[in-house]
């Protein structure tokens, strides 16, 4: 991360898991705790934030926080975003303030309705592995967002992992389906593998290690290798071997269509959230 934005005052509306993940990453990257503020009405959430760094300012007053920060991160659930954001759009905030939403389905059009078309607005889709600094975030912005604004947003989101920008906002619902919801798909596969391993006779702890370490290793190879994923699969699949027997069963069961349908359902739900 660049130290160029080390003095940026970053304010968070909402102090839940994603806000905490981003804040933790920023602190680990060297961002000063005194340059971070959080507004959340729940005392327990404020305590969790303070546990990250006592110097972080916590408040229940969204408006006061929004008036003071250079970057405003909206980290509340999409179902209440309208209730939270609309009042903030009515107050006087810093002219060059960058506003980021990390809520699924919230469109740039909605953000423009709340904050005005002249505001620097950025939509982000992060995912759960941000909690351990291995997140994948997709970002898009309104046309008036400057390169400097984008660099600041990248600075914030790369505190939790990798960040990719997309010019076409329509791709953000696909990002939600692929990487936003994606960790749950892999957890399900690992869950199934653990269950079957236990049925094979392994104890629960061993079954979990067999499942999770296999997934971790495969993911690392896939992320670092130059080969196509299909080629990596083929390298493990010896003709007439055990892997081939397993993959033939999965293919016969329609696993590809099943995953396509699941991803399409997630994408359509993201669109629905944006409309609602």
Runs in which pLDDT lies below 50 for 5 or more consecutive residues are none
**Strand fraction band?**
5-15%
Q: Count the helices. How many?
A: 12
- Biggest β-sheet: strands ordered side by side in the sheet: 3-2-1-4-5-6-7-8
The major β-sheet equals: 8 strands, mixed
Describe this structure as you would to a colleague:
It is a single chain. The protein is α/β, with parallel strands linked by helices and 276 residues long. It has 2 domains: 3-175, Rossmann fold, CATH 3.40.50; 182-275, ProC C-terminal domain-like (ProC C-terminal domain-like fold, Orthogonal Bundle), CATH 1.10.3730. Helices cover 53% and strands 13% of the residues. It has an 8-stranded mixed sheet, sandwiched between helices. α4 runs parallel beside α5 (108-115) and α8 crosses α9 (204-224). The longest helix is centred in the last third of the chain and has 21 residues, at 204-224. The model has no long low-confidence stretch (mean pLDDT 94).
